[in-house]
């Protein structure tokens, strides 16, 4: 059974933000659309609470879960969270989006052993200076993370590159070459305005039309992901590149199958909005039954609607 919203969009994917803390300071970060709290460590959801929410979600037909943040690896109990969620019967995919800085030193391998299936690693540039300027972090450590993810056997490993005008857009060919050489997938992501200042957005947003035209010309085949925003995947002779274009894109929104859970335990139907959240953590802490929690998911599902409408 799947939940479907008022526009006929099935609910298939859940993105759980497990912390607001991060060890990078990405200039472009949308912070998963969350309102930032003064004390980012406060009110963390416990492992048990996160796993319970995931169980309820899976019982309602949500078969794919992604852990995000902040930086999920800032939580020492991430392996326990992964073990708990991966053991849920009916779950088909469990993935992590990370800056990769803490994936080395055996962590990637440990997470794979705990049942994590895939990782997406943010890599906005292969130039150490640009990487540092954009993230505050060290490129070397991120590349160690990519290496660790590959060696741990995650498949596919994906690189997430938010493309920014006048900052890293000229790095796209290098990233394509790197991804191809390492047999990993590159995602080119259009900058979202959420939690990014107006000035920054105006200065650095650029549609990905130019990159897409180049990919189209080189592609051997093009694949569509109908249950993931109708995104296109370009299979080039030596690399695979997925393009994420959310801005003013009605087709993207009409094929959105996601719900989010914020790091303070609220069901969030859309990255772009905070006026339609449904608290699930407080009811859990007040002793709500599984049936009551399912009803909260159903309510939040009916609050889903395409942000960009036809
Ligand atoms: N710290 C983790 C990381 O770096 O992947 C997880 C959090 S980050 C918010 C999750 C994803 O959002 C990353 O892949 C990042 O590239 C993407 N992202 C961040 N800010 C964005 C923005 N303004 N527009 C589009 N994507 C963005």
In CATH, the homologous superfamily goes by the name Aldolase class I
Net shape: globular
Determine the structural class based on helices, strands and strand pairing: alpha/beta
What percentage of residues falls in helices of 4 or more residues? 25-40%
Strand order of the largest sheet: 7-8-9-6-5-4-3-2-1-10-11-12
The Cα radius of gyration reads 19 Å
Which percent range describes the beta-strand content?
15-25%
SSE string: EHEHEHEHHEHEHHEEEHEEEHH
Provide the low-confidence segments as ranges: none
Task: Fill in the CATH topology.
Answer: TIM Barrel
Separation, N- and C-terminal Cα atoms: 27 Å
| Number of strand segments | 12
- The DSSP helix count reads 11
Largest sheet: 12 strands, mixed
Q: If classified by CATH, what would the architecture be?
A: Alpha-Beta Barrel
Write the SSE topology:
Elements: E1 13-17, H1 47-59, E2 64-68, H2 78-86, E3 93-98, H3 107-113, E4 118-122, H4 128-135, H5 139-152, E5 157-163, H6 172-181, E6 185-190, H7 198-204, H8 209-218, E7 221-225, E8 231-235, E9 240-244, H9 250-254, E10 258-261, E11 266-268, E12 278-279, H10 281-285, H11 290-302
Parallel strand pairs: 1-2, 1-10, 2-3, 3-4, 4-5, 5-6, 6-9
Antiparallel strand pairs: 7-8, 8-9, 10-11, 11-12
Helix pairs in contact: 1-2, 3-5
């Amino acid at each position: 059974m799947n939940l479907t919203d008022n526009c006929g969009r099935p609910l298939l994917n859940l993105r759980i933000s497990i912390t607001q803390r991060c060890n990078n300071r990405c200039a472009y970060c949308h912070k998963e659309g969350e309102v930032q709290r003064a004390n980012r460590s406060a009110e963390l959801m416990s492992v048990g609470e996160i796993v319970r929410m995931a169980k309820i979600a899976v019982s309602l037909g949500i078969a794919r879960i992604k852990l995000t943040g902040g930086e999920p690896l800032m939580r020492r109990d991430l392996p326990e969270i992964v073990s708990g969620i991966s053991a849920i019967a009916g779950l088909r995919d469990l993935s992590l989006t990370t800056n990769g800085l803490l994936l080395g030193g055996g962590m990637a391998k440990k997470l794979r052993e705990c049942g994590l299936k895939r990782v997406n690693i943010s890599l906005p540039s292969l130039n150490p200076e640009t990487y540092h300027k954009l993230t505050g972090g060290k490129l070397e450590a991120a590349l160690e993370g990519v290496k660790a993810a590959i060696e741990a056997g995650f498949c596919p490993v994906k690189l997430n590159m938010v493309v920014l005008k006048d900052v890293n857009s000229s790095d796209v060919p290098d990233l394509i070459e790197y991804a191809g050489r390492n047999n990993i997938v590159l995602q080119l992501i259009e900058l979202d305005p959420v939690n990014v200042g107006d000035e920054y957005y105006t200065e650095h947003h650029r549609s990905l039309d130019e990159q897409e035209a180049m990919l189209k010309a080189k592609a051997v085949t093009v694949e569509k992901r109908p249950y993931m925003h109708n995104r296109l995947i370009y299979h080039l002779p030596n690399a695979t590149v997925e393009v994420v274009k959310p801005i003013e894109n009605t087709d993207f929104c009409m094929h959105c199958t996601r719900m989010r859970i914020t790091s303070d335990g609220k069901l969030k139907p859309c990255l772009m909005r905070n006026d339609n959240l449904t608290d699930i953590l407080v009811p859990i802490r007040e002793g709500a039954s599984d049936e009551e929690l399912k009803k909260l998911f159903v309510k939040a599902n009916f609050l889903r609607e395409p942000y960009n409408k036809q």
